[in-house]
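Run log // design_07
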């Protein structure tokens, strides 16, 4: 693989609230240095909803010699608000491009994560309607492609580097708009027998292919249901993660094995870039003495974050580092 990467969370913004309260640039520098030196990454997928944070993190990544995938991640925004966000971020990404290789990610799973593409007040309602009425996929794809044509035009006014879009396969974006095809392809038991072939098929279509958004949590059995592996958490009245449902057992080895296997599949099938999801999910805290509140068990991060903000590698960290070091 050319781009060996991982996603790095700068804070997701939903309804004006940001998921990562503190954003310490010294900590970002330490994390990105670990990502380069210990994980053997040469690229990082910077995701989040705050343009200033994305730019500051990108400046640090550029100084470390990493390829940057600059990825504003709209959540529950209207198409007009998404365009404003993209225009702001494109200007910032172009400034970074003077010092580093930068790929601009023109959205991630926009049709289900935001309003205006399919019915539903939130992502759960949209997914429920989509699964219940598969014919809506074509309608959502048409609306998305109309929007992406406008979005790409806006971004290209300000940004001169390569563009991509991180899609769910059903979205069927118009790849003529983009330089790289990016797919959120997560292996589960249901698709395990066709997973390698599906990747082989998209690689054979010509443009460079990147796989983003893949990973699983650290509990026994998570790999079989990887796209839903975070659903073992119960939320409080404010919608914040509160506790792990009964009956689940922590299993870091399962997460490690899963990531090793899928990364080896990507390498074998000629994928241009891979971005593990993700380095750390800071609001899914590791509480080793309280399994019912050990939210990290349900998190896809390859490091476990403690309540004081410090972190330690999980078994998955070593698996990713091993594969990236030899590929």
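design_07 sequence
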């Amino acid at each position: 693989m050319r781009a060996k990467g991982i996603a790095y969370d700068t804070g997701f913004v939903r309804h004006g609230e940001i998921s990562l309260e503190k954003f310490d640039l010294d900590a970002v520098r330490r994390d990105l240095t670990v990502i380069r030196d210990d994980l053997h990454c040469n690229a990082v997928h910077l995701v989040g909803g705050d343009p200033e944070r994305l730019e500051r993190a990108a400046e640090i990544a550029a100084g470390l010699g990493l390829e940057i995938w600059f990825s504003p991640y709209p959540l529950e925004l209207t198409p007009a608000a998404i365009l404003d966000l993209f225009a702001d971020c494109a200007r910032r990404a172009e400034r970074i491009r003077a010092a580093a290789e930068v790929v601009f990610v023109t959205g991630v799973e926009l049709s289900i994560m935001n309003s205006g593409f399919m019915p539903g007040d939130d992502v759960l309602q949209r997914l429920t309607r989509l699964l219940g009425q598969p014919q809506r996929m074509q309608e959502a794809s048409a609306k998305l492609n109309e929007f992406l044509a406008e979005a790409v035009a806006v971004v290209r006014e300000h940004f001169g580097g390569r563009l991509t879009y991180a899609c769910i396969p059903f979205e069927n974006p118009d790849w003529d708009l983009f330089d790289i095809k990016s797919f959120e392809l997560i292996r589960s038991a249901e698709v395990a027998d066709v997973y390698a072939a599906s990747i082989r098929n998209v690689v054979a279509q010509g443009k460079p292919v990147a796989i983003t958004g893949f990973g699983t949590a650290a509990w026994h059995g998570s790999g079989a249901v990887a796209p839903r592996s975070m659903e073992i958490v119960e939320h409080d009245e404010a919608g914040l993660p509160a506790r792990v449902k009964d009956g689940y057992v922590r299993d870091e080895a399962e997460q490690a094995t899963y990531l090793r296997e899928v990364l080896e599949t990507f390498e074998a099938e000629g994928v241009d870039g891979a971005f593990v999801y993700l380095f750390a999910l800071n609001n899914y805290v590791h509480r080793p003495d309280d399994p019912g509140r050990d939210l990290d068990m349900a998190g896809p991060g390859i490091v476990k974050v403690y309540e004081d903000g410090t972190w330690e590698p999980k078994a998955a960290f070593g698996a990713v580092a091993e594969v990236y070091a030899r590929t």
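The longest strand covers residues 3-9.
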